[in-house]
Amino acid sequence: MQSSSHETDVAIIGAGPVGLFAIFECGMLRMRTHVVDALDTVGGQCAALYPEKPIFDIPAYPKIDAAALVDRLAEQAAPFKPVYHLGQQVERLEASGDGFWRLTTNAGTEITAKAVIVAAGVGAFGPNRPPLAGIEAFEGKSVLYYVKQREALRGKRVVIAGGGDSAVDWALLLADIAARVMVVHRRPKFRAAPENAERLRQLAEAGAIDLVVPFQLAGLEGNGDRLSAVLVDNLDGTRRRLDADMLLPFFGLAMNLGPIAAWGLDLDRSHVTVEQATCATSRAGIFAIGDIATYPGKLKLILSGFSEAAMAAHAIHPIVHPGEVLHFEYSTTRGVP
Ligand SMILES: Cc1cc2nc3c(=O)[nH]c(=O)nc-3n(C[C@H](O)[C@H](O)[C@H](O)COP(=O)(O)OP(=O)(O)OC[C@H]3O[C@@H](n4cnc5c(N)ncnc54)[C@H](O)[C@@H]3O)c2cc1C
């Protein structure tokens, strides 16, 4: 492990879409940034969970794939020369004297900054794993919690488990390329967007998708890391054996604040409470934006996070440039480097 020490104006924890936009907003106010993310790539949930899914509520993009949005955000941040420390989790955040903060990662990197923006999303996130004996052997090969490339499932017999948006969306997305799509859910009703749930019902009626309801996962069969069948039980104990190459369990995300919970910030049910106008947390000099931040009326959307990034950057400016009057300027006036 090679440790290193850095000093900067603003340390950003999390390189999800909101952390990336915070680089831009800080840069526009002449504040240098270092950005740390536990993942080995930028983009947060967009990159890790749904890169190929289109997003429809990013202003000025009627439709943009999550991966493309991340690319655009990184491009927009690039002129401000952020320093990325990827594949490292921030473990400690401590006052280092003179009003500075020092954060330390699990790779031994130390960053001292005048202010900190916590843009850590849902914290250290991971899938809720179904409690099936021996599932670890198949994970990453024939049991996938995230689908990075739809094409990887072409011609496969796919079992999708779950009843929410992810399960239904992926069933619809795979219906025309997988050899067979079987959707296992413990209730006949799906908790997905009504139009998608209706589309699922139509495809099932047309025989393009098999609805295996009300059933739940009971076991796996296979050899090494290759799955051959998924066993499912219904409520009265009747068992079915679904021949399958792949299992995609979509039971939501396990949200784990991880080390953030120990940083002395006021929390509300695993979120950091902030002052809405500034995104200031309960500790002076530490700000929180994006999914991790909460205040009355908070909408957990990327576009809310973008606005919070702008508000936090303006609130941080007097900390980084004390005594300097901040003249509010449009980007059209200021331009970018
Ligand atoms: C399937 C799906 C579809 C969605 N569709 C939409 C949509 O259509 N429109 C919309 O607006 N939103 C959508 N969302 C929600 C959207 O993705 C989130 O609101 C957004 O990703 C939040 O961005 P963020 O930057 O705050 O956090 P995240 O994207 O969660 O990024 C946070 C980053 O912080 C890192 N991190 C956490 N703790 C640490 C630590 N201690 N040290 C270092 N790094 C750390 C994580 O690794 C992560 O990369 C969707 C989400 C999902 C799962």
Structure description:
- The longest helix has 19 residues, at 302-320.
- This protein has helices spanning 17-28, 44-49, 66-77, 165-174, 194-205, 302-320, 331-334, and strands spanning 5-13, 33-37, 54-55, 64-65, 83-86, 90-95, 101-105, 110-118, 124-127, 157-161, 180-184, 210-212, 215-223, 226-234, 239-243, 246-249, 253-256, 267-268, 271-273, 286-288, 293-294.
- 22% of the residues lie in helices and 30% in strands.
- α1 (17-28) packs parallel to α3 (66-77), α1 packs parallel to α6 (302-320) and α4 crosses α5 (194-205).
- The protein is built from 7 helices and 21 strands.
- The protein is elongated.
- It is α/β, with parallel strands linked by helices and 337 residues long.
- β3 (54-55) and β4 form a beta hairpin.
- The strands form 6 sheets. Strands 1, 2, 5, 6, 7, 8 and 20 form a 7-stranded mixed sheet that branches. A 4-stranded parallel sheet has the order 12-11-10-16, with helices on one face. A 3-stranded antiparallel sheet has the order 13-14-15, with no helix packed on it.
- Flavin-adenine dinucleotide binds at residues 13-19, 36-39, 44-46, 49-50, 55, 57, 89-90, 119-124, 166, 258-260, 290-291, 300-303, 305.
- The site of flavin-adenine dinucleotide has 37 residues, from α1, β2, α2 and α6.
